[in-house]
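Q: Give me the 3D complex with acetoacetyl-coenzyme A.
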Amino acid sequence: MNFKLTEEQQAVKDAARDFAQSELLEGVIERDTEQRFPAQQVRQMGELGFMSMMVDPKYGGGGMDTISYVLAMEEISKIDASASVSMSVNNSLVCWGLEKFGSEEQKQKYLPRLCSGEAIGAFCLSEPEAGSDATSQVTEAIDKGDHYLLNGTKNWITNGNSASIYLVIAQTDREKGHRGINCLIVEKGMEGFVVGKKEDKLGIRGSDTHMLSFTDVKVPKENRVGEDGFGFKFAMGTLNGGRIGIAAQALGIAAGAYELALKYSKERKTFGKPISEHQAIAFKLADMATKIEAARHLVYKAAWLKDEGEDYSEASAMAKLYASEVAMDVTVEAVQVHGGYGYVKEYHVERLMRDAKITQIYEGTSEIQKIVISRSILKD
Ligand code: CAA
Ligand code: FAD
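A: Here is the predicted complex, encoded as structure tokens.
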């Protein structure tokens, strides 16, 4: 077993850390307050290759492994989880899904723009009445011969307004249940497609989360991803990898809060000594560091399994379940280590605490991860 990063992986980690420090840190508090999408920074991330790290270079991607991707996700999430969720959706849901399951024409048409940062992608599965219970899709894609007629509403869509390429999951043949679901590529500007209201959120406030509505949108047949009825399998297969991205995001949020708490604990003095010399604070730091390290092992292991071509659905669910719990625990403690200063925006940890919560909800709640894990271990 080798725990050492390769030179290339270390270089990716350093580059992501430098980018986050130099380009994302400035203004992150204002973007959170004003709910402003980091458009310029995400564009730069595309130009630097962070939006398509694993895509084959022949389509404009970085051709990197999943370990490199999680290292970059971790570093960027330490500073700005709103930017990193955009990165995660574009990399592991949209680009990966299209590259793995799309036709050659679809790859050539969409991947170069998604890789360069010219276009951002969105993944549209959830609906007002279908979140965890994802097979109960109400959105319909009726087969009209050379096109589908798409009608319905999607909820909570990340990159909702900033995206221009949307993977939309919809029911074509209700009698076939989940085997009657399709995934369609919808482009912004198609007649009948409207970006609806923006959500006002607890955390990741810089991320633009929108409701989307589709009224008699004519989607050409060539925009269907995979065979007829493959849409639900597409969504589940893609989410297996997406959950590694969100697990890395949770890890980064936790590690970012821990780094701030560690630094502050050495600077802040009470009763004549740094608070890090009070055992209660030192033990908190020890707990935080241990949990983060355990989460890191699960996240890297899931990424490694994916790179090895092994089954990673159980490992990705475990990584997301645990890393998101750690993100919540560690960020709460980081606020505590900062005392009153932790409760104000200037010190960053209150934002990381608010951001941490979403990692237990999206890409499958913690309860859903336990369903995935328990079904997998019981099957064996
Ligand atoms: N990998 C591959 N295939 C899977 C799978 C997985 N992890 N989970 C299920 N499937 C397949 C099953 O094998 C089955 O296919 P067959 O019948 O051909 O064998 C089919 O999908 C249906 O599976 P189930 O019968 O298990 O379906 P279910 O109704 O019991 O639900 C579920 C399973 C795991 C709960 C699923 O509905 C689920 O994952 N729900 C959560 C949805 C989710 O994660 N949404 C995230 C939206 S995207 C997002 O959130 C992005 C973001 O924020 C940034
Ligand atoms: P529900 O499914 O209604 O769940 C409510 C509660 O019941 C949860 O605690 C859940 O765990 C629990 N529960 C439900 N079923 C079970 C069960 N069988 N056993 C035990 N407990 C259960 N979706 C997308 O498709 N694309 C996106 O880009 C996207 N981005 C998002 C961004 C944000 C900021 C948010 C908030 C959500 C986003 N989502 C996105 C949606 C997200 O994936 C769903 O919110 C999530 O899957 C949960 O669905 P729900 O909100 O309908 O909750």
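A quick observation: The CA atoms of residues 78 and 256 lie 4 Å apart.
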